[in-house]
Structure formats: C-alpha cells, structure tokens
Amino acid sequence: MRYIPIVAVFVLIAGCASDPVQPLEEQFPSVPAHLPAMVYPANNVITREKVDLGRHLFYDKRLSNEGTIACASCHVAAQSFSDAPNQVSQGVQGARGLRNAPMIVNVGYRKMMFWDGRASTLEEQAMGAFLNSAEMQADTFAVAVLLRSDVYRAKWLAAFGDTSVSMPRVMQAVATFERTIVSANSRYDRFLQGHLNALSALERKGMQLFFSSKALCSSCHSGPDLTDDLFHNVGLFHHYFDRGRYNVTKDPLDEGKFKTPTLRNVALSPPYMATGDSEKGLLTTLEQVVDHYNDGGTPFPNKDPRVKKLGLTDPEKASLVAFMKALTDSSVLTNPAWQQP
After folding, report:
1. What is the pTM of this model?
2. Could you give the number of structural domains in the chain?
3. Residue 4 has what pLDDT?
4. Widest CA span of the chain, in angstroms?
C-alpha cells in the first residue's frame, strides 16, 4: 500500500480518484511542528467531513451486535483513550478479551496494530474489533441499514460524495477520526520546545536516566512518540499462554514478544504490559513497572538481553517515574473535537 504524508500538498492528494471528496488545502488535522508528518493511506484522504462521520461512528453503540459496545467503550476519552483501570475489556454478551486495550493516542503514527502486529493499517485494526466476537461482533447488514437511514445519510454523503455504504468505508471513517487524536502538549513536549522550566529537577534527572545507557529505557521507547514500534519479550512470564507475536509469524523466536507501546500519557493508562500483568501479578503502577525492569524480569529463552538487572537506586527509580508522569498531556482528555458528539 502506498502512503503519503498528511501534510502533502493539495495537488498530490486531490489526485486520489478513489475518493471524490475534495480535501482541504490547509494542513488538516494540525500536527505539531516537533512531531513528524503523519502518513495515511492514499485511498483514505483526510477531510473534515470524514472525521465528523468517524467521530459519530466511534461513539455509536448501535454498530455492535447488541447495541451496547462502541469503539469508545474500550477507548475512553477520559482515560486518554484507554480502558484504564481494566485489565481486559468487556465486549458484547459480557465477553472478555485476552489483552489490555491499547491506548489509541497518536495511533496514526503506528506502523502495525494490535499488541501482536497482526493488522498493518488502522482501517484493518478497526475492522478486526468491529467483527470480533469478544468485542463488537457487528451485524454488518444491520449496520448498513443504520448508515443508509436518515440518521447518517447526510453525513455519509458529505464524507464520501455518494451513498454507497460498505464496511471498509465505515472503517475508513473511524480510522480517519482516530488519526486526528494527536497528543503533543505534555510538559516534556514543552521542555523540548525550549521551556526548560517545564520539568522539575527530579523530572530532568529522570529524563537523563531514561535516555542513558544505564536504564536503557530509550533503546525501545525511542523517537518522538517514545516507541520503536517493534516487538520484544521483556521477561514477563516463565510460560506464555498468550504467545504474542508468535501467533502471527509462527516463528519460535517471536514467543512472548509484544509491540512496544508509546509512553505518551502512560500514567493515565494502567495496568501495564500487553496482558496487564506479569509472573508477579498485576502491574498497576509505574513504580511496579520500573521494579520489573530493575530486577531484570523473569527468565525466558528469548527474553531481550537488554532486560537485565539494572542496579537502580530508589532515588533513581523515583526520578524515572517522575519523568514518565511528565509525559502526561491532560488536554487529550477534554479536547472537544474528540468528545462524544
């Protein structure tokens, strides 16, 4: 699939014949200058009309089989679009998933979706949740009827330029809205922009340690979004009932590997890790996560060699936690553009 930058010039994106709606000439949505340009599929250009449709669909429980679950049920705006503090989410008919619902802040930057990377696009991920029997278990016929009704007809026509309803287009709209959820206004961001007093002395110590060869945090949590978008076994269990990336690749070397999450707003999205727990139990605090890595994790044949005893002191561990809390962008929780319409 060909991808083009979200900030691409109007002449380039207007040429996508697969979408008759004319995109806006100005940059939309706005991406802060200190973040990289976001990319999106060439067959799903971003327009305000499609974002508006996607926002309504994101919050609409009628898309699920029982009319009880929406995308927003497991990606709650007030919890930075995570399902904190739940270890796993509840879908239709009380079904429970197997993994912690990933926070979708800055999800438009992700290269692969789900903890095991089984989806290559945000549209594909949305379809997976839409059809999953433990999540929305959508009745596609009933959804099509809803979208052809007076409830959605005008918004659909504005977004796509015609009234041809299809499930892939539904997912395009949802994914388009999700790509606008960009977080870049934490105190750490302000520090990067030259406001040196945005971080306390303790937080600056934690930042230095985070990016040091002693703590090794940034060897995986790297880049502007603090993730390498790769898969690692970080020594959570002696035996993995959920085999992670292996379930996709069938490669024994991928046993127990899961995708590195972004650390943006990490303080708002416990419990931590793909399944929310480890050999020692639930990981509900950042202090517990730091202790896990400082102790070197649980032995496992393909555990990442960087997960080893670190020898951090209590003050050093406290500074790391303080820095991670400074990655919080509380404006995400209240931005009216992302709230339920």
Report:
1. 0.87
2. 2
3. 38
4. 63
